[in-house]
Write a structure and sequence with these properties.
Shape of chain A: globular
Number of helices of chain A: 20
Number of strands of chain B: 26
Shape of chain B: globular
Radius of gyration of chain A: 22 Å
Largest sheet of chain B: 10 strands, mixed
Helix content of chain B: 10-25%
Strand content of chain B: 25-35%
Structural class of chain B: alpha+beta
Oligomer: heterodimer
Largest sheet of chain A: none
Largest interface: A-B, 67 and 60 residues
Radius of gyration of chain B: 30 Å
Strand content of chain A: under 5%
Number of strands of chain A: 1
Chain lengths: ~425, ~525
């Protein structure tokens, strides 16, 4: 009978995914024991007013004392979080770390399931790489350590894609409704998720073709989605007691009353915006996101999973209150599209831009708000660098996704756009 | 004959006003009190009573008001009170920090730094309270040349328990409600005193009011003026104009004594009496355990107070007090039985911690109502609220919390503190500092924002203060908020829009243009 030690060694040697996955989660939990999270909790790059744990605690505190947290105030989380943490889930710091790590675990597992569904296989040597790229991506680990609720959003996002890839329409639409409920800007993902349900998650990038859509079935799915969505609205209204939660949660992403700095493009723009142009630009910034849906869904109609991936990238650059977890999930998702890698034009530039941004962001934030030796422009400039880095990654992914159809380059020929 | 007729007409004209005098009563009083730390506190009080008058019922706001004829009562103020149907009004404009620990309780309670306005008004459907409150503060801003117009929705709260009416409220069908606002950054100066003096029947020409010399008053260590209007069911409408100051006789020159005289405090003496004053008294607190002399000899001594009646005494009056010994600064003060310290801790411009220490010096338990009316700039995290006495957790009760609305309503936060005898209660609370629109910052944005004082209301009578409700104000705080770069709006708009346009352009460029393969390099066929 082989000893446990040799079994473990063997498992590692054979990359037994089912054994290593819990180990990785355990390492994630161990990180929380280092106490590093106390300095991250109020970090503006990791939490926003919409996702911060301190705000969530304040809301639960008020809710438990019979004060409606949506009557003014700064509580901008969904009523679902309120009911969840005041009833089912225990509301202490230590259990929160376990819940948040478990969420990350579920998300990483969902990502692997998406990869498997795309490849049409039940297990692969790439599983571990994908899991690690999710569980140990610093953009995803740090917000999770700061107990930002964007971790939940990412979990629902990946669960939704997983269910859609596996063809489980009801589950996919329900998680999508939850996702849109938590983060309004993900509304752009409705169309590609429905397309994915109507089509296949298999990689079709190399062979573009027209993919006629069964509109009747699509509308049927959209109807089902709306039913779930309205059930969630109804439940939220029941929990909150009135309709104020709508303006406090979704209204915030549209009207930007809280100008706390974050890594996005909105806060400084609307801090500096002239009063009489403010409504106009709020409209432009909100509607701008919707412009991308149709072109990307049409262009990548043969591979809706890729269209979904591209739209996630766009949303995460241009949403009102992003945390680092938003670009993080996009970057991690690149790992399930290995066919793109040979066709990237400037991966080094993208990486360096990200490195540059991730070093500058905390530094300039500290200089501006704590040391007082820098000013707001410093931090703003580093958010621009991050937006450039995200933009470069997005551009390269779209380029590679289109370029792949033309096959590898031959000597003496180059591929250009007309 | 024509001469007689003219005289008759004149008498007929004068008659109503002569009648009015009998229903108006003007009293003035000056209280001077040497303080334990060598300073001298003086309080002027000018009380005009409109006998038998009632405040205007807000139900009658739609129609014409009764005509107003006053002789002594200030018309300018009367018009404002009638126009906005104000039942009770309290305005105070103060400069400096009242030191409860050294000076004890003030004669007039409203000593919060800056401007404070609160009013009780009847609600009505004709014009809402909030509409009249807005009109009232703008009218008072015009009358007193103060920035009371800034006491807008950002600062208005309705804390009923702390600001109970000092007088009575008429029994109308419509309920009464209070509106309160304070502006700690408002400065008090001569331009506020001049309109204040105009409300007095003798202006500053005679009587006690002639001592109100701006050069000396605004040089004092602490000074503040107040306007109080209230209604007493059995008496009528009372207007009380007050001025308090704390001067330092030890400050000037090489004098080592706490000696003072009216002339040294105010640069003037009372030259003549105010003829319309019903009573006019100067009260001087007499020290109990020190040897002193007071001139002129007080005609009347009531327990610890020397009383000079200016209507009966020889003019000019220049009351003076001299001490036999040099002043010695005491090592310990026996000030107010309840003191409070409030600080904002933390170096970050994004968040901090509010720390409050309330000290009860009494030998009995003291229930105190604590009120914060914080502008939205500082956001409370009540979930982090912790109270302790000597390191041991202490329970707080009766929390009332109305959260702020960003860019508008302030926070109203009230709690009941029960402080055991001779102990310090410490309260800490995490706060967030808001980020403002660039246009919301004041011109001197780097200076920070003054936060209004918190107010403590003991629920049992303390010290020898018996008249109604007591209010103790904490000093104001200064919060340093993060500022954007004010010269950058165009640059930011251009940079961000360019970046978004660049992304948009890139994505659409990739999506719409056709991919083609072209031959490059050394072409062997040509």
């Amino acid at each position: 009978m082989p000893s446990a030690k040799t079994q473990l060694v063997q498992a590692v040697l054979t990359w037994d995914y089912n054994l290593i996955f819990p180990c990785l989660l355990a390492i994630r939990l161990l990180i929380t024991l280092t106490g590093v999270q106390s300095i991250l909790e109020k970090n503006h790059q990791l939490t926003t007013p919409l996702t911060s744990y301190a705000n969530l605690q304040e809301g639960i505190y008020l809710f438990n004392r019979g004060i409606n947290p949506y009557d003014g105030g700064y509580f901008r989380h969904s009523p679902l979080f309120l009911s969840l943490f005041s009833t089912i889930l225990p509301n202490t710091k230590s259990t929160a770390y376990i819940i948040w790590t478990l969420c990350d675990g579920i998300a990483a597992w969902a990502l692997v399931q998406i990869w498997r569904a795309r490849q049409g296989i039940s297990t692969s040597s790439r599983d571990l790489l994908i899991t690690t790229s999710y569980l140990f991506n610093p953009y995803l680990v740090l917000p999770s350590l700061a107990l930002s609720t964007s971790t939940f959003e990412n979990t629902f996002l990946l669960l939704c894609i997983m269910f859609a890839s596996q063809g489980k329409a009801s589950f996919a639409l329900l998680t999508l409704a939850l996702l849109v409920h938590l983060s309004l800007s993900t509304v752009v993902l409705i169309v590609p998720v429905i397309l994915l349900l109507l089509s296949t998650p298999k990689s079709q990038l190399a062979s573009p073709h027209a993919n006629p859509v069964d509109f009747r079935k699509g509308l049927h799915l959209l109807g089902e989605y709306l039913v779930y969505f309205f059930i969630l609205i109804f439940t939220s209204t029941l929990i909150a007691g009135n309709w104020n939660w709508v303006s406090q949660t979704w209204g915030t992403t549209l009207t930007l009353p809280d100008l706390t700095p974050n890594i996005g493009l909105w806060w400084y723009f609307f801090t500096e915006m002239f009063d009489h142009f403010r409504p106009f630009f709020l409209m432009v910034f909100s509607v701008h996101l919707l412009i991308y849906i149709a072109p990307i869904c049409i262009k990548f109609q043969y591979d809706p999973l890729f269209a979904l991936f591209v739209l996630i990238g766009i949303t995460n650059i241009s949403k009102a209150y992003p945390t680092l977890a938003d670009p993080g999930v996009f970057l991690t998702m690149i790992s399930i599209f290995p066919e793109l890698y040979p066709y990237f034009q400037h991966p080094i530039v993208t990486t360096l831009l990200h490195l540059h941004a991730s070093l500058l962001l905390p530094l300039f934030h500290q200089l501006w708000l704590v040391q007082g030796t820098g000013n707001a422009n410093f931090f703003y400039a580093s958010t621009l660098v991050l937006a450039c880095a995200n933009g470069a990654a997005l551009r390269d992914c779209i380029w590679a996704g289109l370029r792949i159809a033309l096959g590898p380059e031959k000597e003496g020929y180059i591929v250009v756009q007309e | 004959m024509a001469k007689w007729r003219a005289l008759f007409c004149l008498a007929a004209c004068l008659y109503p006003s002569a009648l009015a005098i009998s229903t108006e009563q003007f009293d003035e009083e000056l209280t001077i009190r040497p303080l334990p730390d060598g300073k001298v506190a003086s309080t002027f009080r000018f009380t005009t009573l409109l006998q038998g008058a009632t405040p205007r019922d807000p139900q009658s706001l739609g129609g014409d008001d009764v005509s107003q004829h006053y002789t002594v009562f200030p018309l300018a103020l009367g018009q404002i009170l009638r126009e906005y149907a104000v039942t009770e009004l309290h305005l105070s404009l103060n400069a400096g920090k009242w030191r409860y620990d050294r000076w004890g309780l003030p004669k007039e309670l409203g000593v919060g730094t800056g401007a404070e306005l609160w009013a009780w008004m009847g609600d009505t459907e004709v014009t809402s309270i909030d509409k009249r409150w807005k009109g009232l503060r703008n009218a008072l801003a015009g009358l007193f040349c103060a920035s009371l117009g800034s006491l807008d929705d950002l600062r208005t709260t309705s804390p009923v328990q702390t600001f109970q009416p000092e007088g009575d409220l008429p029994d109308w069908d419509s309920p009464h409600d209070v509106r309160h606002a304070s502006l700690p950054s408002e400065h008090v100066c001569t331009e506020n005193l001049t309109p204040f003096l105009k409300l007095l029947p003798c202006k500053s020409r005679s009587g006690i009011a002639s001592l109100l010399n701006p050069h000396r008053l605004f040089d004092a260590d602490w000074h503040g003026m107040g306007v109080h209007v209230l209604w007493r069911e059995k008496e009528g409408v009372e207007v009380r104009l007050t001025f308090q100051s704390v001067s330092d006789p030890l400050r000037s020159g090489s004098r080592q004594k706490q000696d003072w005289s009216l002339h040294s405090l105010f640069g003037r003496s009372i030259e003549r009496e105010c003829p319309v004053a019903h009573s006019s008294r100067v009260l001087v607190a007499l020290p109990q355990d020190q040897s002193y002399s007071i001139t002129p000899e007080p005609p009347l001594v009531e327990t610890e107070w020397a009383v000079f009646d200016t209507t009966k005494i020889n003019m000019p009056l220049n009351t003076a007090m001299t001490w036999a010994q040099n002043f010695e600064f005491p090592t310990e003060f026996n000030g107010a039985p309840l003191t409070v310290k409030r600080t904002l801790r933390g170096t970050s411009q994004a968040y901090g911690q509010l720390s409050i220490t309330v000290q009860n010096r009494l030998s009995s338990e003291l229930p105190v109502l604590y009120l914060e009316t914080m502008p939205w700039l500082v956001q409370f995290y009540l979930s982090t609220l912790k109270a302790s006495i000597g390191g041991k957790p202490h329970a707080l009760s009766n929390l009332t919390y109305i959260p702020a609305i960003p860019h508008s309503r302030p926070t109203t936060f009230q709690m009941l503190l029960t402080i055991p005898a001779k102990s310090d209660l410490e309260i800490v609370l995490d706060v967030n500092k808001a980020f403002l629109l660039y246009a919301e910052h004041p011109p001197d944005a780097q200076r920070g924002w003054d936060l209004p004082p918190a107010i403590l209301t003991p629920l049992v009578p303390i010290a020898n203060h018996s008249t109604g409700q007591l209010r103790i104000y904490t000093p104001t705080l200064l919060v340093d908020l993060a500022t954007p770069d004010f010269s950058m709006p165009y640059n930011v708009i251009i940079f961000t829009c360019s970046l978004i346009a660049f992304l948009f352009g890139n994505v659409f460029n990739l999506l719409t243009r056709k991919f083609v393969i072209i031959r490059v390099g050394s072409d062997k066929t040509t």
